[in-house]
Amino acid sequence: MFLIQRLKQHLPKTHLMAAGICTLIIGTTALLLPSSKVPASDSAQVQIPLSLNEAGIAQQSSDSLAVSDIDKLPATAAGPQVISSIATAPIAAIESQTAEAPKIVEHWQDVKVKSGDTLTSIFKRAGLTPRDVYNVTAAVKGSEALARLYPGQTISFVINESKLHKLKHIRSQLESSVVSATETGYQVEDITKQPKVKTRFAEGSIENSLFYDASQAGLSDKMIMELAAIFGWDIDFVLDLRQGDSFNLVFEEKYLDGKLIGEGNIISAQFVNRGETYTAIRYTDSKGNTSYFNPQGESMRKAFLRSPVDFARISSSFKNRRKHPVLGLTRAHRGTDYAAGTGTPIKAAGEGKIIWRGTKGGYGKCIIVQHGGNITTLYAHMNNYRKGQRTGSRVKQGQVIGYVGKTGLASGPHLHYEFRVNGAHKNPQTVKLPHAAPIDKAERNAFFATAKNALSQLESYKATQLASAAN
């Protein structure tokens, strides 16, 4: 103890610290050396790595650990553990600081797509150049990113030092694309979110019109149109509806993060019209083709639409004698007139080929479609034709071919529609329309299993609704 006091008076503090640590090492080593009675083994060896430089001991300031502090350590203290802690603590701190790299904050700039916009104009508003447009479009080729732009969509950019680092194109709540800069250019990632699909039941009675009453039952315009399309081959929703008719259906709703984002398909539906019940079941075959069938496996779809204009009012029916509203002459009216606003879409009643497209006397602008070998349909008084079609073009059932107008001998905007079999005029409202192909024999077992489940679900919903109404 006397020796230590003398050393304190004559040696610098750093030398004293080094001497103290050496004393600890020597003492600890002596304690750990095996005695003559206990043989040493590899597993009993203790290694104590120590670097004065790494521990920062040689550089410690005057307020660091002093020799006097070492004197205060108990003789039985685990010396190696203390030294190891002293030596490695600063290293751990350095490693911790290295791991916490600064985060790069992305500042997104949103640009709304306007009517008439191009990629060049959108990129220009974001502060980018035509060269950026070229580089990005080359990278996204074959992707859905930036393939179709609609007014109201948002394109977001991350731009640092006039360089595009990221671009995000949100096409819908479920689909988006992210374009990211790389060392060699850009890469694109298409992102598709999967919504949770739930089923919902709705029912209603006809008191005013299908649109009004179905809307009161909670159906969207889209769902009402789909319901009308399913039963439109059997029911004319303008001419045939009666008060007291009813409908019920099971359809899909899509949810994302617990929020309703849209509707899916109609799974099954029933419509009671004039006391007759029509039932439709959605079925997708093994080839991926989807359609609606009745419980017997017959297609709800007919070879021809009953009406080529949706929800139009019949202003003049098929008659053998009628006074012409323009000429004032009494003569046969060989078709059905549908009153509708100018520009209302006109659909091809069935699949076929356009054999006439042009002005035809009192018909005005007119289209004639050939269906198979013996049936033709005529659409007259059009305001205009659908672009991209001409004489000889093939059209599908339900495809828009023109728009309602009042060209030719017409007193107001309407569609004059004729249905001819072997050249003879038939009443479009009463002619028996051929069915589309029924369920394929190879699909019948699978269809009947699907139909059984769908009808069971529909009846279960109806029973629950009835019980709820009774309470």
Describe the structure.
The protein is an alpha+beta fold and 471 residues long. It has 4 domains: 2-31 and 47-99, no CATH class; 108-192, Roll (Nuclear Transport Factor 2, Chain: A), CATH 3.10.450.350; 210-302 and 444-471, Nuclear Transport Factor 2, Chain: A; 313-426, Glucose Permease (Domain IIA), CATH 2.70.70. It contains 10 helices and 23 strands. Strands 11, 14, 16, 17, 18, 20, 22 and 23 form an 8-stranded antiparallel beta sheet that branches. A hairpin with a 6-residue loop joins β12 and β13. The longest helix has 27 residues, at 444-470. Mean pLDDT is 81; it is low at 36-89.
The CATH topology annotation of the largest domain reads as: Nuclear Transport Factor 2, Chain: A
Q: How many separate domains make up the residues?
A: 4
**The CATH top-level class label of the largest domain:** Alpha Beta
Total DSSP E strands: 23
* Mean residue pLDDT: 81
Count of individual helical segments: 10
Biggest beta-sheet profile: 8 strands, antiparallel
CATH architectural designation of the largest domain: Roll
Distance between the termini: 98 Å
SSE-based structural type: alpha+beta
Radius of gyration: 42 Å
* Proportion in β-strands: 25-35%
Task: State the shape.
Answer: extended
The percentage helix is: 25-40%
Which spans have pLDDT < 50 for at least 5 consecutive residues? 36-89
What is the structure about, briefly put?
With 471 residues, this protein is an alpha+beta fold. 26% of the residues lie in helices and 31% in strands.
